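Marked as duplicate of an earlier ticket. Keeping the data here for the record.
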Amino acid sequence: MTKIQTTCTASITASALTTAVWLQDLTTILGLIGTIISAVFGLISIGLLIYNKVKGKVQDNDLSIEDIVDLIKEGKEGAEPYIEQLEEAIEKIKESSKK
């Protein structure tokens, strides 16, 4: 190999190594950004779950009659299905008491 070929080969090798290091750094940075974004969305979803529990939205179907009456009195969101169930139950009670 001549001196020029050796210099070119060394230059190409150095350039390839520099590119490989940059790509490795780039993938590391992108991985960190993805991790941060997923952590932020995780915190947001946990915050929304806590907010919904604290706000008192109805999500369970196993409420007592007293709980349903309190919801209706307070006008909380989510009481509509329970109002319909109460109306149906009242109708059934009226029909069974007539028999």
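See parent ticket for discussion. The chain is about 85% helix and 0% strand.
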